[in-house]
């Protein structure tokens, strides 16, 4: 209902909506429900003008808000009361109004942290009771077979509360979410094959943020509940949502890769071949890598096509999903069982609203459902995503995401059960690791199905060879080598012989050592290269000491010695470098000393075999021996070789989760803050077209 308002300029009369008239009276402090007992029932049938509320709230000063607090409190309570009605449009409009109201007050609070905005919403003595009632009704809306739009708007409202402040621990409303948990209804959403496709991402994002709230009792209830969660369908749903989000990034990268390849001319191909032929591996430079725009799964608004589980999920930052994966891997051992679970179709396409909407997208190849890849699982998809995000570590966002990927991989390789899954020869998968076309090195991983441990080693080799630059990402290299170390330690403890081309790993490690030695002067000004050298040398010490328990055949052990002998100048130079710095006054003196000590057995092998090979060459009048001849010399002279058992140099075989906690806590806090800001930016309530919701309302029926 509207009335005409004539313009003073004599122009055509303008229409003013009835709801706007009510808002005007409301913000003047008038009693809008006076003399009308059914006012609120009628009010929540009017489509809210979100932009008007936001604009008016922004105009008000804190003093004016205090003056209006009676009206605001009444509106807040009436919105909550409307949740109980059976008419779903009333619930939808009350949720939109409530979300807009709370969002506007949070905006004031971010500008002035001394503003006690909760007292504007609720009488202080009734705060606990009102929030308990509010969150109880949110629990019901998330649990009951409500309209999909209602659940979506309820999640938006909860996310608005959680992301109200940049720092979660400075958000005064979160104590109510700690004492009135929404964990159970969120996990029920994840366990439902239909609801997880509509609300899975928002549910996981909300859980992730709530798990990062510090409480007065030092024990976050959401972390405790996640650590105890053992429902298979819920864990699989959690895993499925993460995999869908990661898979979207892989598909986007794959599409851009194909497009770039199709645009290449014969001249581009020719120049690339010539460049590869002239490439000299001794001079490793930084490369500018163009990736898909760095990735955050943008939340689907209720007016978008909801059946697409990350089909057209545009990406700016994957931080939220990565933190969710970290929390699950770090706190819940049962989650490890989902890492290799092959997700099959959830039959969500059978839902009536989905069937109607899919007609418009079935012919679009860009909207291919991740469920079509029936043989994929979370770990395979995560490895593929890592190969993309680890290509570019120059920007802060990419570096943080890449580092968190390493932290997640460290937690996975720390777990005995996860390691057993990755080494199971009956669980072999084809893992397509993505490579930047600007990278020029000889490592080409085998793309045939293999145990996941082998794919992880390929991923680590790709990272090592692709990031030898003057601004060396030392922390990521340290994590990379420690992951390799953990894999080998697991194999040693359990006498597992992984069928893998170990020569690729050894040559890559030696290449990194050569790089450290070549650019020692530039690198040592900013980082401690000796700690990285220690980790690399200890990998060789593990193979030297326990190779008979690790390597698939005796010939592999021979090849290890062959590689050490073939590249003996690298080890000799590293020893000279570390010895020189261990005897001089240097800030890295202790590390340099330890590195020189770690090289004892490698130098023993070199000093033992080099003279024998020279004698063999002289005796047989050979100037250029072939590899098999050197291997024969190696095999014939094991008996006279003396090595030491360097227990101190082999590193710990025990779990280092406590160290992970210390090293990753600051990274997680930094990334959580970014997720909060990104999520709040995506929660543009006025951008949700309510008219579109009304038009599609018939589609969002109960998906039971």
TrEMBL record:
Keywords: Membrane, Transmembrane, Transmembrane helix. Its main location: membrane. It is found in: Membrane. It comes from the Eukaryota. InterPro entries: ARMD3-like, ARMH3_C. Residues 445-683 form the Armadillo-like helical domain. GO terms for cellular component: cytosol; membrane. It holds the Pfam family ARMH3_C. This is Armadillo-like helical domain-containing protein.
């Amino acid at each position: 209902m509207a009335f005409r308002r004539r313009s003073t300029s004599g122009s055509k009369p303008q229409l003013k909506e009835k709801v706007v008239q009510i808002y005007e009276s409301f913000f003047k402090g008038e009693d809008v429900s006076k003399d009308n007992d059914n006012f609120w029932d009628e009010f929540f049938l009017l489509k809210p003008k979100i932009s008007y509320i936001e604009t008016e709230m922004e105009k008000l000063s804190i003093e004016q808000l205090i003056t209006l607090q009676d009206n605001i409190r009444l509106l807040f309570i009436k919105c909550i009361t409307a949740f109980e009605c059976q008419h779903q449009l009333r619930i939808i409009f009350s949720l939109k109004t409530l979300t807009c109201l709370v969002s506007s007050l949070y905006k004031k609070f971010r500008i002035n942290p001394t503003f006690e905005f909760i007292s504007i919403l609720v009488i202080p003595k009734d705060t606990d009771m009102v929030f308990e009632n509010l969150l109880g009704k949110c629990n019901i809306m998330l649990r009951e077979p409500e309209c999909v739009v209602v659940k979506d708007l309820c999640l938006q409202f909860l996310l608005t509360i959680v992301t109200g402040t940049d720092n979660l621990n400075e958000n005064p409303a979160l104590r109510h979410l700690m004492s009135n948990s929404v964990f159970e209804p969120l996990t029920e959403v994840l366990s439902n094959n239909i609801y997880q496709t509509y609300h899975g991402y928002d549910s996981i994002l909300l859980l992730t943020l709530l798990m990062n709230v510090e409480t007065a009792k030092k024990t976050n209830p959401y972390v405790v509940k996640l650590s105890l969660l053992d429902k298979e369908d819920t864990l699989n749903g959690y895993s499925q949502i993460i995999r869908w989000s990661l898979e979207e990034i892989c598909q986007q990268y794959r599409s851009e890769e194909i497009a770039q390849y199709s645009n290449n001319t014969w001249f581009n191909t020719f120049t690339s071949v010539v460049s590869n032929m002239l490439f000299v591996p001794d001079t490793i430079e930084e490369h500018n890598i163009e990736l898909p725009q760095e990735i955050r799964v943008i939340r689907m608004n209720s007016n978008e096509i909801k059946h697409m589980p990350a089909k057209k999920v545009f990406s700016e930052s994957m931080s939220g999903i990565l933190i969710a994966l970290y929390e699950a891997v770090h706190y819940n051992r049962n989650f490890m069982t989902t890492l290799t679970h092959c997700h099959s179709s959830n039959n969500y396409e059978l839902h009536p609203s989905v069937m109607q909407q899919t007609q418009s997208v079935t012919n679009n190849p860009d909207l291919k459902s991740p469920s079509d890849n029936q043989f994929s699982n979370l770990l395979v998809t995560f490895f593929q995503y890592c190969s993309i995000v680890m290509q570019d570590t120059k920007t802060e966002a990419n570096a943080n995401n890449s580092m968190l990927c390493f932290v997640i991989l460290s937690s996975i390789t720390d777990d005995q059960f996860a390691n057993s899954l990755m080494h199971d020869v009956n669980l072999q998968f084809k893992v397509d690791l993505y490579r930047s076309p600007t990278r020029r090195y000889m490592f080409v991983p085998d793309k045939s199905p293999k145990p996941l441990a082998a794919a992880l080693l390929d991923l680590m080799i790709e990272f090592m060879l692709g990031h030898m630059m003057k601004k060396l990402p030392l922390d990521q290299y340290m994590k990379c080598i420690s992951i390799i170390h953990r894999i080998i330690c697991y194999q040693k403890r359990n006498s597992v012989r992984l069928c893998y081309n170990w020569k690729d790993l050894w040559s890559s490690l030696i290449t990194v050592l050569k790089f450290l030695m070549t650019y020692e002067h530039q690198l040592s000004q900013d980082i401690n290269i000796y700690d990285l050298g220690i980790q690399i040398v200890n990998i060789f010490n593990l193979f030297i000491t326990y190779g008979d328990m690790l390597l698939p055949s005796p010939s592999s052990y021979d090849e290890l010695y062959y590689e050490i002998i073939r590249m003996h100048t690298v080890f000799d130079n590293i020893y000279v470098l570390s010895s020189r710095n261990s005897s001089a006054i240097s800030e890295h003196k202790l590390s340099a000393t330890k590195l020189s000590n770690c090289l004892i057995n490698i130098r023993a092998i070199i000093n033992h075999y080099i003279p024998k090979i020279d004698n063999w060459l002289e005796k047989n009048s050979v100037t250029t021996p072939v590899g098999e001849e050197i291997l024969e010399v190696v095999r014939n002279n094991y008996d006279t070789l003396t090595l030491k058992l360097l227990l101190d140099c082999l590193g710990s075989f025990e779990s280092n989760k406590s160290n992970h906690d210390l090293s990753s806590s600051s990274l997680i806090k930094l990334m959580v803050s970014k997720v909060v800001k990104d999520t709040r930016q995506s929660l543009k309530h006025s951008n949700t077209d309510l008219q579109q919701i009304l038009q599609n309302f018939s589609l969002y029926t109960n998906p039971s």
